[in-house]
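Model the whole thing, not chain by chain.
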Amino acid sequence: MSAVLSLREVGVTYGRGATAFQALHGISLDIEPGEMTLMLGPSGSGKTSLLQVMGCLLRASRGSVRLFGQDLHAGLTAEALAALRLQHIGFVFQHYNLFPTLKAWENVAVALDIKALPRAQQHAQALALLDRLGLADRAGHYPSELSGGQKQRVAIARAMAGAPRVLLADEPTAALDGKTGQGVAATLHELAHRDGVAVVVVSHDPRVEPFGDRVLHLEDGRLVDDRRPPRSSA
Amino acid sequence: MNAAGRGLGGTSLLAWRNLSHDRARFVVTLVGVLFAVLLMGVELGLLLGFARTTSGMVDHTQADLWITPAGTTNVDIAGRLDERRRFEALAVPGVAAVDALMLQFAFWRKPDGGTESVSMIGYNLASGQGRPWNLVQGRVEDLQQDDAVIIDTLYAAKLGVAALGQTVEINNQRARVVGFTEGIRTFTQSPYVFTTHRNAQKFTFLRPDQTTYLLVRLVPGADVDTVRDALQARLGRVDVWRSADFARAAQRYWLVTTGAGSALLLAALLGLVVGIVIVGQTLYATTVDRLPEYATLRAMGAPNRYLYAVILKQAAISAVLGFAGGMLLVGLVVLGGEGSTVAVAMPAGLVGVLALLTLFMCMLGALISIRRITRIDPTSVFQ
């Protein structure tokens, strides 16, 4: 299997001079398709910075990042990075970040619209994605009418719109109760295994850990552990 | 809101929902646009109405050229010409006919007392050059009577006239109203009083060989500029104008030199500025409220133009709805003005100009929001 994301000696520094803060130090790793990678670590360990680098949202200060072989070098414009995100990456956020004025299916359809899918197909595809996540009967509801778990599944459906090859999730279960959180983690795991998506999940949540095919542990901006548990419980 | 949003998609849907979700702010935006359209529409309509009024006499003749006393700046104020000069004009090649037209101020004594200033218009009944238009009561043939005059219904009350046949005094000479026109306004507020050239000479004490203007019609195919130059050379100390040029000169005189046009344009500009400020402020507030959503879109990979489209469509929706409401009110003002001495003109061309101005106003108002969106940091979605 070839890596979808390759990081070599990646470092990230915020600020300059005396106030400079180094968030990541020499991170090297490959993210493979078809598996769910968990990123664990205490607050401030650099998990989110690393996720942002992987998601073409943050430029690495040092080292190299390759997405499907393309070098995300400093010369790429913000628009070029946005185009790469659009083509390859889906995001799931801790607080869902759904558009509150749009219904569930419209939230998914917006992602398809950005990808320039013909309008006539957007409704059907959005409904199909929601149906797959068990939300067909909630498609016409606004986010304010959905539970936390339902909102996160809508967010996952939106992230999956247009079939990205990489799905990056930031604390996707943090705002959910135990059972719901496990359900969301199981959904992400299924996406990795069934669709061959490279899923990377940043989490503090021990309930998610059993679903990880691979577990990365960060401390003080360094990758201190990279292991594959013998058998996922998912 | 939902019904209106049905059928929309993508940026249009986001734009509509962003606006309609906060109804109070949306109403403020629409009222702002509506007020700006009303102000611009009425002021520009007044400007055009005044422009038409100032050149109305010129525009309603069929003359190709006007011969005026030297130094004439507008049709309402002029010196005198020797009427016999029309024979000199007739001798110029290309001239088919020359008719005298008189326009002189006079005093109108109302039947129940009081005096008003009027503009006496004396024209050649046979040629009809300078005849009243929009006649709604009476016949122009009745002007053949020595004391007959025609006035406009808009000024009838001002002149103390309630019905046909009423007699008044013009410069202490008996005059009788034999007809009414409708909608012939004057910028000078001295109402036009139509009569024959001979009667006008009598009412204004001009000698039988005196007139104000000579109106020239050309033979078919004659070159207007060539004939004008020939007339100027032949007649000497007079001004010879193409009709359109004389009309524009009259408009320029009244609207520019009196400052009336500047005041109206300034008020219209004020409307535009007010609209830009209100649209800019409310759209910006809406944008700032929704920055996390724009950041999410950006994180999802939306190009800047997608975000701009949302903002610009919000501006366009505000423009369309505000314009519709504003034009409804402008229409009421136009209707209301039809019965008054002040006309608000609203031809299709001006409606188009207002639509473009409204769109321009709203797009300009959206720029500040676009500037804010340009600087959005997609990593803020993780905060």
